[in-house]
Amino acid sequence: MNVAIVYHSVTGTTARLAEAVADGCHSVPEVTAALLRIEAADIEQGRYHNRTVINAIDRADAVIFGSPTFMGSVSAQFKAFADATAGEYWGEQLWADKIAAGFTVGTGYCGDTLHSLHYLQILAAQQGMLWAGLDLAGAGDRKAPNRLGAQAGVIVRAVDGAIETPDLHTAFYLGQRVARLVGRFRVVTTQIERVQQL
Ligand SMILES: Cc1cc2nc3c(=O)[nH]c(=O)nc-3n(C[C@H](O)[C@H](O)[C@H](O)COP(=O)(O)O)c2cc1C
Q1: What are phi and psi of 13, to 5 degrees?
Q2: Which atom of ligand 1 is nearest to the CA of 17?
Q3: How many alpha carbons lie under 13 Å from residue 176 in its C-beta half-sphere?
Q4: Measuring from atom 18 of ligand 1, which residue has the nearest CA?
Q5: pLDDT digit string, tens, across residues 120-163
Q6: I need a labelling partner for 119 at 20 to 30 A (CA). Which of 8, 38, 56, 133 fits?
Q7: What's the pLDDT score for residue 196?
Q8: Ligand 1 centre from 147 Cα, in Å?
């Protein structure tokens, strides 16, 4: 079972969160995670073209999207990647039923970062994916995971790239949660297939 973590990062903060998400995936037996960074060099005249990333998503059981929040939404580079998933991927819903989740980071206390998560949710919905949020009640404890209280996904506040430990734990938890869900999904799918063969 494998999870694709597709993310963009300019100064490395989102990249470090992606690594924490991958660590969370790897904490679940039989799950591997592939870190797939969206590179600006793969965008020409506004169009993203890296089949390696797209093909890795084809093979993945789940996809976790990550982007910094830039001007209240995902980065332009992440959006270029998302636009490249239109065409046959959207038209034929080739990624339908994959589990999806997301994370973002900004410097603002709010920073309109929730809008980035909502965009990632919409992207997943357009691709027929099943969104997994956080089953962590953010109760306002500044030292606990999900200290910022978002349940649509992971929101992190980091100034000058300094990620606080609870936020790294939240990112780890998201990866672990998605990996566990992939395992549960696999069991259910196998059971359904067995029943269909009776
Ligand atoms: C062009 C630009 C726009 C930004 N817009 C926002 C924003 O709307 N909200 C916010 O909280 N932070 C904003 N930031 C801060 C970044 O989200 C923050 O520095 C983030 O950690 C960068 O991630 P990275 O290190 O992975 O590139 C912006 C930064 C840049 C360069």
Answers
A1: -70, -50
A2: 26
A3: 13
A4: 106
A5: 999 999 999 999 999 999 878 889 999 999 999 999 999 999 99
A6: 56
A7: 85
A8: 19
